[in-house]
Amino acid sequence: MRHQKAIVLEATHGKAKYFTSTLWMEGSKLMEKGYLSLDEDVISIFADTGTNQMYGAEYYQIPRSDRLQYGIYYHLQYHHEGPHLAPQTGIDKLHFNLNTAIGQGDNAYFIINVSNVREFVFELHACAEMLWDIKSFSKEEYMKRYCTVFGNSAAEMHEIINRYYSCLPELAVSCLKKDLPKYFNYDYTNRAPTVKNFVLKEGNILTHGREIISAFHTPLRDNLYPEYYTELVKAVPLYEEIVDRLTEISLSLPERVKKHITCKWLLYAKTLLCIYRWYVCLYDAKQFCDRMDSVRMIYALQSACSSLEEYLRYRTCAEYGEFSGWFRGDTKMNVKQCLMDTCKLLGQVPAFL
Description:
Blueprint lengths: L1 H10 L7 E5 L2 H7 L9 E6 L9 H5 L8 E6 L15 H14 L4 E5 L7 H12 L6 H9 L6 H13 L3 E2 L4 H4 L18 E2 L2 H13 L10 H27 L3 H36 L3 H21 L20 H10 L9
Parallel strand pairs: 1-2, 2-3, 3-4
Antiparallel strand pairs: 5-6
């Protein structure tokens, strides 16, 4: 670590003033076990894990030193697990993690991984207010200020946005042992019982769905496929209701506000709903395939394809003006490829593409 710092100082002719080290994966473990120590002018940066966006065991176990400074690297977006296409962190989880960090004195530095920005503005704004003055931040006041744009529908939008987050499907924290790679050192206990911990985000779901497709004609290996299925079956009708209510509200609003709801909350809810349905239908199809029930297998696969086609059609509502072609770079979640691979199980090519 000191050698790396010396290289930077040499390359910048001694002008470099700020140094950080993000303690993640092996960095956390080495620090926790006492094998790694940092110079006083290097800020130790703790990170959440993208899977559940919570701090792990090492965050609470690594002793702090009065000589050193500490900061946070937090994921509002995570490459593989999501969120990516829709916000799924929520103000409650943000507040818990930021409040914990500030209470611990880990406030010398903060960096947030947000990727697209556009999909996360609602949470980003709240995050900025918390970091500016977390003691005076109020979720209710923040929501009220945001919802004033919806006029007479403000109270209902307030309630629906809360419901959008509260209905996110969640697995038991113990399932993290099965989901996380072994090099993560997490104690798997929920330190915030009022916060959703292991939320099934669209990235998790799409990854598990791709694995089902690749093993469609062979036994599924031991993973969380049935657990995902159980929670997503329950989530589908909840998000159908949210989509219906948002659609109804949008009809009575001025065009500009209607566009805002459509390209934000309605698109987000529709995104999650379509991906949830896709996974449920795909899992059903796999079970029918295993039982050699070809009729119901084909119907389930067709329904899975229809769900992704519905999403891909609907999301074009957000591609206008300066956002024209916004989703052309969707190679992380790659929904079009998921649709293509699902159709291939039927020996078809999607007409949508």
